[in-house]
Amino acid sequence: MIRSFLDRLVTLLVHGAFYAFPKDFRELHKADMMNLQAERHREAWRSGGVVAALWDIVRLIPNLIASGLVERINSGRSKSARGRVGWFGVLWSDILVSLRSLRRTPGFVAVAAIPMALGIAASTSVFSIVDGVFLRPLPYSEPDRIVVLGTAWPGDLASRISIPNFLDVADRATSFEGLASFRNGTFLRHTEEGLERARVGRVSSNFFQVLGVQPEIGRTFRDDDERTVVLSHAEWADRWSSDPAVVGRTIEMEVLGRESATNIYTVVGVLSRGFVPPEGLGASDEIRLWVVPPIDRGFIERTRAFSLTTAIGRLGSGVELSRAGEEVSLIGGNLVSEYPEANSRENDAKVFSITPLHELTVGDVGTRLVLLMVGVCSLLLIACANVANLFLARSDRAQHEISLRLALGSSRTRVVGQALLQSGIIAAVGGVVGVGLTFAIVSWFVSYSPGDVPRLAEITVEPRTLIFAITATGLAAMLSGLFPAIGTLGRQPGEVLRSGARTSSGRLHLTRSTLVAAELALAVVLLVVSSVTMTAFLRTLNRDLGFDHDEVITMRISAPRDQSGEASVAFFHEVVRRVNAQPGLSEATSTNFGVESSPPQVYKVTTDPGDEPVGVGTHIVMAGFFELLGIDVLRGRSFTEVDAANALPTAIVSTSFAEKYWPGEVAVGKTILIAERPAIEVVGVVADLATQGAAANIGPTVFLPYAQHSWLGSVLIMSRYSGDAGAAARGMREALRLVDQNILPEYLSTLTDDLGATVREPKFYSYLLTGFSITALLLAAVGIHATLSYMVLGRRKEIGIRMALGATHTRVVGLVLKHGMSIVAAGLIAGVFFSRLALPLVESVVIGAAAVDPDDVLVVLAVLILVSVVACVRPARHASLVEPMEVLRED
Amino acid sequence: MKQSVKNLLPLPATDFQLLLLLCKEPMHAYGIAGAAGSDGGARLEIGSLYRVLARMLKSGLIEEIPPKTAVSGNEAKRKYFRITPLGRKVASAEARRLKSALETAVDRKLIEIPWRTS
Description:
Oligomer: heterodimer
Number of domains of chain A: 5
Helix content of chain A: 40-55%
CATH topology of chain B: Arc Repressor Mutant, subunit A
Strand order of the largest sheet of chain B: 1-3-2
Helix content of chain B: 55-70%
Largest interface: A-B, 21 and 15 residues
Number of strands of chain B: 3
CATH class of chain B: Mainly Alpha
Distance between the termini of chain B: 35 Å
CATH superfamily of chain B: Winged helix-like DNA-binding domain superfamily/Winged helix DNA-binding domain
Strand order of the largest sheet of chain A: 2-3-8-5-7-6
Structural class of chain B: mainly alpha
CATH architecture of chain B: Orthogonal Bundle
Number of helices of chain A: 27
Shape of chain A: globular
Radius of gyration of chain B: 16 Å
Radius of gyration of chain A: 38 Å
Strand content of chain B: 5-15%
Number of domains of chain B: 1
């Protein structure tokens, strides 16, 4: 029983193992071998039973397979030129042939593999960075289900909500698994060195559950927590040396501005390293501590009119966004009728709505991505063109070799297979180097972070892109590697052989030159785009913002909670007066909007009651604002004490506002309408200013006097200082303390520092694009060099004859340079043409690009020409070194 | 494919071993496999054995002969191999080559076997 089963198994195994042998060997000897094996097997059974029989098989099968493979290799080696052989022998001998052929030209392997590696590395690492920063879904569990809940007057962006409204929606809504709130806060922290400002995230206890975030150690908040704190990973690493026993330790802090009592907070957990605070809510990496402020419902109820917090909700599973939205707006409608004084005004009511968090976080990055993706694709295209070009450049020699093989009887499929194999080997080398380079670049980028990139921790090499880049360049190599084989197959081998090894075919030559010219054209486009971007960025850095930000200090404060309306205005006026009294501080003034709190308030403004109102950036400023910032009043007057609460409503507009609404007319004396308020008279026109920093566009702006819009809860006090900014900051604090000891600054910084933060993003784009164009330039130079080198090689005989007939070295060098420069010229012309087409896209994406004169940028093309000339030098020199007699004797 | 004696030298050890076996009488693979193991040489697995046989057939050192008449069963299916005149020449050339190698080894005092001349 066992024996018959075993025998059958053995027969099967042996039959299988025989397939290792080449077919002709099997035909000759298999029967005999099977015979012998059967006898041996029987004998083993007889002498040693099942153990010996099995042992026999264990020795036999590997031996059969090994012998078979060796036989295949040997037969492949000895018979490769003759007729039909097994696939293995063919493959093996082809690999040997390819390696041998590549070993003869190690320079070619390097030259072809390097651009491939560069193309793979450059495009993949850039895409990985862009992907990590902008494209990757937010790092929360099921981020699609997270929405932002907000209220706004009709037409405005609903990103914030008042705390009582939020609590009521959270109580009543059923579409959500949870609703949580978040506010930025500043605490004063007691450390051994003294008091220290700390950015704090003030959240509801379910905030982390709603985001779906797990802590690294400990836990997040519970409903019954009192005075607990959760640490960010950075805080834990920096301050607590990643001490695992941090849970249970305490931090002493006091809340800035509102309460002066010091509280002890107990650490309950640490967030994981990958946790990213939701930037869509205005949270940032700078938040190191997270706390749950106690809810004082009595106090909070009085703030229903003020959108003090942000709120997020996690949709219940299977709940449609639209259904949740309907529910929220229904509840909102009820809240409007329940609390009309807080949630509505004369003719309209607050709208309650939800927005996906991703939409709020990423915003209008989309258009910029188009630019970067165009860059990535161009680079990849250049790399492919380069690889293809190099293979084509070699194809003359390859054609000769292939024709020789065909003439000697090699089959066509084998010739094609060999060509594929050769380019495949090069593609593999390039791919491996490219992968290594990609990882190196990305890890370098993460560790040095040029340009203060956000979401840095999320950047990793994107595997799909890597595979795509390798496939693209690999395919380019394989296809172009096939070209010579296919070109030869259509012709008689003898014809190719007779035409001589070193004469190049004109058609191929044209293809190659076109490829290089196309590469150059793409490089030109990238160069122009990146230099426009870089120029725009540099101009941004030195841009005239329309106001003087040197030596201006800013401080954000809130009015005491028992003072609102005119009382709060009086409070802010008093602070301004006290600031002016401080030594070293002068020209103090106030506004509701600073660079640090983007975006500005947008009001619906129109100039004609019949027109549809349009959102316009609006700044509420105190008298002295224009004077402090050195803003010229072009027409009319500035704000003064005259513009009091009970006076005629007045406004000052920016030049671009005046030009938009009253082109060619005098703006002073006209009226504007804001919401349902009485008509407001324009009393002055000021120059345009970039209130959101250098990187932002300048739009029409309206300025309104402080006293007439007295509902402000929080304002920015600004003052000129001279000398030390630290002393100025102390003066600001002191002034505030003199007015009210319980109010502390929420934010204190110089205006110049605030503006610096606004150029982060353009800096990032400029670096990326510059990286692109340098790589592109390098690749194009490699392309020119290779093409000319092979051209010289291909025309050695011709050059030799010319020299024998009396051509001078100068003429020969000129011949090569002329050829090279004609390629460069074609590439340049096409490149400039396409850049002109690309520029409108750039201008729509890069702020300030429109102001750059494209002709200025063309100067950078001089660099490209220079690099091209350098790339021509070596081939030209080689041509001039041709020894006529030697060349003529060659064939 | 006939080859000259010189091209085939030095002979791989297994080939030489098999030629020596076949010098006595034609044998079938089973006999060769059995004898090779017991003759002081290396034991040959079937795969290796047939590679060597195939190689020697191809270079003309051995040839197949039809099975003996008047046999039946397993015997009838067996292939017999015998040494060719070329095989003999090669084997004796190889033996001479080995002999001179051995004499050198004795000269250099590597071994001390008394040389049997006849």
